[in-house]
Amino acid sequence: MMRVLVVGAGIGGLTTALSLHRAGIEALVVDAAARLRPLGVGINLLPHAVRELTELGLGGELAELGVPTAEMVHFDRYGGRIWGDPRGRALGYTWPQYSIHRGELQMLLLDTVRARLGEGAVRTGTLFEGFEQDGDTVRARLLDRASGTAETVSADVLVGADGLHSAVRAQLYPDEGAPLWNGIRMWRGLTEGEPFLTGRTLAVAGSNAAAKMVVYPISMRAERRGRALLNWVAEVRVPGDPRSGAADWNRAGRLEDVLPHFADWRFGWLDVPALLAGAERILEYPMVDRDPVGRWTFGRVTLLGDAAHPMYPIGSNGGSQAVLDARILAYRLATAATPAEGLLGYEQERLEAANAVVLACRDMPAERVLRLVAERAPHGFAAIEDVLSPEELAGITGAYLRTSFTDVEALNTRSSYTPTGEASPA
Fold this sequence. Notes:
The chain has helices at residues 11-22, 47-55, 59-65, 102-117, 167-172, 220-224, 255-258, 272-277, 318-335, 339-363, 365-376, 390-403, 408-413; strands spanning 3-7, 26-30, 42-45, 67-68, 71-75, 81-86, 98-101, 122-123, 126-134, 137-144, 150-155, 157-160, 180-193, 201-207, 211-217, 228-237, 282-289, 301-303. By secondary structure, the protein is of the alpha/beta class. It has a domain at 3-38 and 102-177 and 292-363: FAD/NAD(P)-binding domain (3-Layer(bba) Sandwich). The strands form four sheets. A seven-stranded mixed β-sheet has the order 6-5-14-15-16-13-17. A five-stranded parallel β-sheet has the order 8-2-1-12-18.
């Protein structure tokens, strides 16, 4: 049996393990964290990612945890409606879009990996220190952080799914340097409150030319109680911020740093200052990515998820792209004549497509339309038709077609990435 070592137990790495197991390939996942905990805030899973997780047998669990997003709506900083579009099944997809707690999703994946592959399939507290490869074998150097014991683990394939600061990528691209910051700082938090608008709306207000707020509910448990667990992201352009390099998803932020930018943002449907103040914990993060690279695969080693294509959090893409990577990697390894051919097939199918999303997110085409609104109607508007032409409004839809949407018919009708053709595990 082929054996794959996966570095990183995030969404991409754990989905890789489940996909490999489903394809009849042995997987071992290692992660440097001493214990995996449900950290983070909200994430959106687009229909193409929901399809893949459903085919891994997790559709019911996703429906129990996440909120099926009904619509995405853009507003100006005064709460005036600019543009809106339905999401998920309302667009014709067979699968919904889910807004879900990133940590809960990761724990679901972790528990499923351990249940299907065994408790030893995920080793925490294990630091990846480097690799060597010779012919058909990759040898990874691992360090047990608790005991200080070093070991070498051999595998047929090594997958770097270890995120933005990937140690695997650093060995492949040793001169790459730090992530690239675009001058926007993000504060993120979770606040329980009353449902707003449809109760399942993903709302975007303002423009990150100055300040922007993204808010959406992420908990079906809260919805069943008549409440909403609201995930919020506050984006503020702060050029010259000396902390720009501190790209740590779990870095603590301060209310006093973010609140002044939104102190008078009160809409008929949402009190933004109260939303910010109601969070038990605030996280702070720079909006960073890396330049796309021309190859992910070197012999028996490849990259996946944020290690392969870190991108701005525009259009709900990061986690969804990682899920696609995982499923296609496993499919290609299972159906190719050799592991090396499988890895190249994975790269050929995913690299250009994922790199295009990175560049589309960096281009921020929807933001150009939002900035036009702010420039032309700095004090708000009565009707958006007085501010933007139909063609300019259509630019927002076009932006999401470039970054987020998969062709509905193509997704609904294409064959499965499960090699057996079955829709879910037994």
